[in-house]
Amino acid sequence: MNLVLIGMPGSGKSTVGKILSKMLCMPLVDTDALVEQTAGKTIPELFAQEGERAFRDRETAAARQAAELDNTVIATGGGIILRPENMEALAATGLIFFRDRDLEDIIGEDHMGRPLVGKDPDKLRILYTQRIDFYRKYAQYTISDTKTAEEAAARIAALYREACQS
Ligand SMILES: Nc1ncnc2c1ncn2[C@@H]1O[C@H](COP(=O)(O)OP(=O)(O)O)[C@@H](O)[C@H]1O
Ligand SMILES: O=C(O)C1=C[C@@H](OP(=O)(O)O)[C@@H](O)[C@H](O)C1
Ligand SMILES: [Mg+2]
């Protein structure tokens, strides 16, 4: 079973994913990193040069690739929930964890590398409103009352171990 992390941009999926990978001795794959490796471009470059639609197509290919792995921590990009086919592929081989970090804490992060967010906190508020129902719908587990990335990782690791032992 893979361990799949979903949530808003800046909620800590990549950070928590790295901690979980060490904690559980499982390899880590980040769909954003897969996209960047395959394209040979950074995410801001991809959005600027090819547009969001092309990025989403690449993200779907990365989701399929990641879903073929086993026993891997998969950190996704915040928009992975935008296409049901991404979530169907990931749910077929993994448990889905939604890191529901406090929106004001998310807003406090640096979002310059995120073309859909940039410097405008209202963009995050709009994204949250548009997406929250999808994160909730696709999550098998929601982790909402943890402050630090370490705390979130510990909670997720315990839930994952419990689910895999039963
Ligand atoms: N409680 C927390 N959970 C997750 N990330 C946190 C937390 N507190 C601070 N951070 C920081 O927030 C940022 C989250 O970024 P990142 O892991 O790239 O998120 P994502 O991959 O979800 O966009 C990182 O700089 C991380 O160190
Ligand atoms: O929410 C989104 O639509 C996006 C989130 C980013 O990933 P993170 O959630 O890891 O920041 C990245 O995939 C891209 O900038 C688009
Ligand atoms: Mg990330």
TrEMBL record:
Entry cofactor note text? Answer: Binds 1 Mg(2+) ion per subunit.
Q: Where in the cell is it found?
A: Cytoplasm
Pathway(s) it belongs to? Metabolic intermediate biosynthesis; chorismate biosynthesis; chorismate from D-erythrose 4-phosphate and phosphoenolpyruvate: step 5/7
Is Cell wall biogenesis/degradation set as a keyword in this record? no
- Give yes or no: UniProt keyword Oxidoreductase: no
Residues that bind Mg(2+), according to the entry? 14
One GO cellular component this record assigns the protein to is: cytosol
Going by the record, the broad EC class of this enzyme is transferase
As its record notes, the protein acts as a catalyst of:
shikimate + ATP = 3-phosphoshikimate + ADP + H(+)
Which protein family is it in?
A: Belongs to the shikimate kinase family.
Tell me, in a sentence or two, what this protein's role is.
Answer: Catalyzes the specific phosphorylation of the 3-hydroxyl group of shikimic acid using ATP as a cosubstrate.
PANTHER family assigned: SHIKIMATE KINASE, SHIKIMATE KINASE 1, CHLOROPLASTIC
Assembly and partners?
A: Monomer.
Q: State the HAMAP family in the record.
A: Shikimate_kinase
Query: What is the designated name of this protein?
Result: Shikimate kinase
Q: Per the UniProt entry, what species is this protein from, by scientific name?
A: Pseudoflavonifractor capillosus ATCC 29799
Q: Which taxonomic lineage is given here?
A: Bacteria, Bacillati, Bacillota, Clostridia, Eubacteriales
| Gene coding for it | aroK
